[in-house]
Amino acid sequence: MTKPHKTKLALFAGAAALAALAPQVHAQSSDALIDKLVDKGILTTDEAKDLREQSDKDFKTAIQAKTGMPDWVTGYKISGDFRGRFEDINVENGAIPTRDRFRYRLRAGLAVSMMDDLEAGFRLTSDEAAKGNSTGGDPISGNTTMTGNGTKKFIYIDQVYGKWSPLHADGWEGSATIGKMENPFVVSDIVFDPDYTPEGAALQLGYAISDQHTLRFNGGGFVLNEFPGSSYDSYMWGTQIRWDAKWAPKLATSLGATYLNILNDANLTSAAIGGGNVGNWRNGTGKLLNGMSPWIVDASATYTLDSFPMYPGAFPIKVGGDFMKNDPASAQNVGWSAGITFGKAGKKGLWEVSYRYKYLGANAWYEQVVDSDTGAYYGTTYHGSVTSAAVYGTGTNVKGHVIKLAYSVTDSLSLGATYLLMDLVQNDYSKSSETGRLQVDASLKF
């Protein structure tokens, strides 16, 4: 055997042994070494491909031996985030004192990938107990307020699910999920709070018509409340279709249509489910006066500039909005929002600025699943949804302005500020109900 071939085989074997015997070395280090050997002409492209495959196999075998990972498990992914927040709530008419508070949110989860396109996962979150008679933590917030002389705080299950994704060929992709999951519907916070994780089952399909156009379908059925001794449990189901298009390298659009429906909504009384939001019209016993079956349409367009002052890289500008109508309700049954975003934070040195106007009628949608940060001052009882005077309430029956700023100091650390200036759509109080809410955040993701 010639000397060059002996050298090549020795390096080949050495690189494979390095990957097998030192599993703590990051995969990128092995790839960098292999690439260097190709650049030097020591390995051919095919030999490099074979070595990468063998290295990955040996690495997986070493990890399985050290962790006891079953053969059918192909990988673990640990992720999460921490957010610290200062918040100020100020009612314009001074009827209630300005409220300052410090809060935090912690989320941490594990996803396990398995053979045969299977995945199982869970995520834990900090939270406070839900208001009223609900069990567990607040369904639309993971925030915990710093109070109680340093008392120990609660951790709840935020997600726990099983997922099967058998469809991923010929332009198709699809998955089925069961459990408590990330919301499958792509909508704004006038429909669902970003922290809301429904529990039930979901089906998601996608088809790439071409490199520029993709159609997606999202469907789900979820449990809202189970009533012992009753056959009329409350459920929510919905369907959604989306069209994502890229018309040119700089121009992309998205269009969506969604229908949602709550079954046995009359059983979602104030006494039965409680909750932190308000706004829906109710009768004296706390029953909803209107059914909940809204349809929603949304659209957005993003144009990307080559550059922009004080922004590294291409600069996206996004405009968009949505409209919602709940036909079973005869009044206060419309919601909509529209806004513009400059830039996009998330990577080191990137920033974004956005403005949005929101209008959400009292009966446009179920109060207990919409944004929990959007609220105003109630000075009197309002259609049975607020039971005491002088209270700041979030939910439906609100309108106003939302301004956001964000800057990513590093890939993992972002700073942000949000100011909400909101008012009631219908105010039965003789004084102003306008309320300002300032949130200043520092967020770490891992």
What is the count of distinct domains? 2
CATH class of the largest domain: Mainly Beta
Question: Could you say what the CATH topology of the largest domain is called?
Answer: Porin
CATH superfamily of the largest domain: Porin
Strand content: over 45%
What is the CATH architecture descriptor of the largest domain? Beta Barrel
N-to-C CA distance: 50 Å
**Estimated structural class:** mainly beta
Helix run count: 4
Q: In oligomeric terms, what are we looking at?
A: single chain
Global geometry: globular
Low-confidence stretches: 3-13, 15-26
The profile of the biggest β sheet is: 16 strands, antiparallel, barrel
The spatial strand order of the largest sheet comes to 1-2-3-5-6-7-8-9-10-11-12-13-14-17-18-19
Secondary-structure element order, N to C: HHHEEEEEEEEEEHEEEEEEEEE
Give me the count of strands: 19
Report helical residue fraction.
Answer: 10-25%
Q: Give the mean pLDDT.
A: 90
Would you write up a description of this structure?
The chain has 2 domains: 65 residues, no CATH class; 372 residues, Porin. Helix content is 13%, strand content 47%. The chain has 4 helices and 19 strands. α1 runs parallel beside α3 and α2 runs antiparallel to α3. The two termini are 50 Å apart.
What would a concise description of this structure say?
It contains four helices and 19 strands. It has helices spanning 3-21, 27-39, 45-67, 270-273; strands at 73-91, 99-114, 118-127, 144-145, 154-169, 172-180, 199-208, 213-225, 234-248, 251-263, 294-305, 315-326, 334-343, 351-360, 375-378, 391-394, 398-408, 413-424, 435-445. α1 packs parallel to α3 (45-67) and α2 packs antiparallel against α3.
